[in-house]
Amino acid sequence: MKKTTGMDRSITANWRPQTRAVRAGTWRSDHGETSEALFLTSGYTYDDAATVAARFAGEAEGMTYSRLQNPTVAMLEERIAALEGAEACRVQTTGMAAMTTALLCQLSQGDHVVAGRAAFGSCRWLVDNLLPRFGIETTVIDARDNAAWEAAVRPNTKVFFFETPANPTMDIVDLEAVCALARSKGIRTVVDNAFATPMLQRPMDFGADVVAYSATKLMEGQGRVLAGAVCGSAEFINDVLLPFQRNTGPNLSPFNAWVVLKGLETLDLRAQRQSENALKLARAIESRVPVMLHPGLPSHPQHDLAQRQMKATGPIFSFIVNGREQAHALLDGLQLIDLSNNIGDSKSLMCHPASTTHANMAPEARAEMGVDEGMLRINVGLEDPDDLIEDLDQALTKAGL
Ligand SMILES: *Cc1c(COP(=O)(O)O)cnc(C)c1O
């Protein structure tokens, strides 16, 4: 293996994001292949016993077992770290494995976590059900309210956990204010940045400590594999996260890592075009729906904050119609846009969160976090936006809007 310039931080640090997305992290084998190689192997062989002993002792560079290291996985980790502007990154088998690893690796019995209440359903499940089972206290708050973060802090608060924009309410968290508060109190921030990706929002530029991803979404971008990632300081990744990950084993398969690696090469183009398409679509239907929730539109109560911390607002937005029945009727009327609960795909997809992604929550909990019975969430893809507008237009008419 030859480390190319893509593995040299003193060089990649000068590259602009689009260049990093295409080249950072590239290693080449002796064949000099152009495209990153797929090392679909679980183990490694050695020339002699002394070499393997040195590797296991950490005295010689080289791989020993794919739960610990794999060349294709390492390329992806280096590329995501370079895009994020993070010292280090480790990838996991899914976004939820990433969130679970990012939290459990650093928390112990008696610690306290403050989390945003508007969140991906499984992220809320971790906070509401898993952490308390291990004696970790949790408080959920309205993450849009900076004063609520401050009021929730206790002497044993270890972590702030939130996503922005939040799924599916499109709430925005003030990254600079919340991260500064955490820093001043010695609390680590863990930001789920799945909706934006590092191309549209870099939480570390605003003081975030740990940024975690479902790479299944916009990062991979074509709905093919599940993947997750956690970025942080070298100290956090090597000393806190790695001992947990290496011994519990939520590792990403080299094949899936390779698919995401190739997906990153088009991330910037996709993120820009899908953001533009989403804005066009939201503008076209805004006057026909009772409530529009798109942070890129002036009608969003946190529009200015979104403009300050995001380069573009991404492919996803939500809107609210009159109740579950009308929401379902609208979905049933679609002819082009697929009825699907995935996001980040280059195909346009739409779903009803209250009966899908957030169906396993109590109705009161859904209402409290702002997931209305009439809410619909759309991921806008790479199709011609005029075809999407025509499809939504006819489905809105059929649903009586
Ligand atoms: C999808 C998603 C997750 C979970 O990711 P998986 O890859 O499906 O495990 C976590 N957070 C957010 C914001 C998501 O959209």
List the helices and strands and how they pair.
Blueprint: E1 2-3, H1 9-12, H2 17-23, E2 27-28, H3 49-56, H4 71-84, E3 88-92, H5 95-104, E4 112-116, H6 121-133, E5 137-141, H7 146-152, E6 157-163, H8 175-184, E7 188-192, H9 197-200, E8 210-214, E9 228-232, H10 234-248, H11 254-264, H12 267-285, E10 291-293, H13 303-309, E11 316-320, H14 323-332, E12 338-339, E13 349-351, H15 363-369, E14 375-379, H16 385-398
Parallel strand pairs: 4-5, 4-6, 6-7, 7-8, 12-13
Antiparallel strand pairs: 1-2, 3-9, 8-9, 10-11, 11-14, 13-14
Helix pairs in contact: 2-4, 4-11, 5-6, 12-16, 14-16
The chain binds pyridoxal-5'-phosphate (PLP).
Shape: globular
Compute the number of helices.
Answer: 16
- Secondary-structure element string: EHHEHHEHEHEHEHEHEEHHHEHEHEEHEH
Predict the CATH topology of the largest domain.
Answer: Aspartate Aminotransferase, domain 2
Strand order in the largest sheet: 3-9-8-7-6-4-5
> So, the CATH homologous superfamily of the largest domain?
Type I PLP-dependent aspartate aminotransferase-like (Major domain)
* Molecules bound to protein: pyridoxal-5'-phosphate
**Oligomeric nature of the chains:** single chain
Overall tally of structural domains:
2
Helix percentage range: 25-40%
Mean pLDDT: 96
| CATH C-level name of the largest domain | Alpha Beta
- Uncertain ranges: none
Q: What percentage of amino acids are in beta strands?
A: 5-15%
The name of the CATH architecture of the largest domain is 3-Layer(aba) Sandwich
Could you tell me how far the N terminus lies from the C terminus, measured between alpha carbons in angstroms? Answer: 60 Å
Question: Rg, please?
Answer: 22 Å
Q: Give the class from helix and strand content and strand pairing.
A: alpha/beta
